[in-house]
Amino acid sequence: MRRHKLLRGLHEVLQPRTYFEIGVRNGLSLELSRAQSVAVDPFYNLTREVRCDVHLVRTTSDEFFNRRHPFAHLAGQPVDLAFIDGMHLSEFALRDFINTEKFCHAGSVVVFDDMLPRNVIEAGRGREGSAKHGAWAGDVYKIVDTLRTLRPDLTVLEMDTEPTGTLVVMNTDPQSRVLDEAYDQLVVDYVVPDPQVVPDWALQRNRALKGEELLASPVWAEIRRLRSLPEAEARPAISEAIRRAGLVAMQGV
Amino acid sequence: MSTVQSVEVISSLAHRQGDQIRLVLHLPEAAAPPAAPVEVRLSGGKRKFIEPATARPATPGVILEATIPASRLGRGIWSLAFRPAPGAPFEPIEARLLTGARQPISLIPGPVPKTRLPEPSPTVRTPTRSRGRRVLGRVVKEVRRRARR
Q1: Ranges of each domain in chain A
Q2: What is this model's ipTM?
Q3: Which of A35, A224, B7, B47 lies 20 to 30 Å from B75 when distance is taken between CA atoms?
Q4: What is the architecture of the domain spanning A3-251?
Q5: Which helix (H) or strand (E) covers residue A92, if one does?
Q6: Range of the structural domain that residue B14 is part of
Q7: From CA A9, how far away is CA A12, in angstroms rounded?
């Protein structure tokens, strides 16, 4: 399954009321949204038709989150579905997640692109060598272990999508400050010269799920039903729905 | 006119270290570092700070490193420049340092994006009136209209 097919499927099963995207480029992923949307990219250049009510913001994601009311367009609604495909460097992707999660709820789904590079060159922080190999995934795969280690409350699912894998994160908690507090040490650990030591689980995809398997899960109907409840009721119910659907066990830890 | 120094994003970073902010900038087009001390300048609105920095050779260019007390910067987006030698003009650096209250410190490389619209304020949704209230409103309006006849 290609990554945009997975994203299209998530739009269909989750039926998000709101959608947030970092990294718009030509609009290939934004065109899938029918929800009230906010999309950020300092250099977007749309070549696709967009059929949603969108605030398209021409700035970097860090500066977007520094705004007084970044999600003014959503009129107070949290983000139901987010797609993070900005700068392909781990420290940027982690910041994007930290900042996005503050506007999520227990039933939100955050999708990252480029999480399973196919070789060490694709996984480099520099993109020069990657161009010859077809894609630059960068070293964003590093945040998988960070999320699993520091945030066991999240459900973190590696997805076997083409070309460079995706990550689906569920059970988000806007109150958590664990990653904020860890960030300053993590950035020092992340910024190291190429070549990167890429773990086998990323290269072999031996713990990645098939997109069809995730999209067929009964959890989506449950999340749609539960997400409008007050947070105190929604959080335990959604956590239980995710566990009951077998997704916690499917993380392949 | 001073040279604008580009920043190699893959080998540059900014982060908190205790109550300091550590800034490491790889400037691939900068000339070999001088023996004399260098300085980095941070400008945000009307505020400007000049801090001592160190420079060491890199392949290519120079790695510039500075440590700035976080309390001095507070919140803001800071333009960066460096002075390669005493008395030399400051050379702008094509990156900004973001020190926000609710988000991690970030080094933002590249030119400032051009936005065209002012930052929006939240829209307030007016509560939808119930069907009963809408019908009642229409009845009252009609009664008033007839009463005026």
Answers
A1: 3-251
A2: 0.91
A3: B7
A4: 3-Layer(aba) Sandwich (3.40)
A5: helix A90-101
A6: 9-109
A7: 5
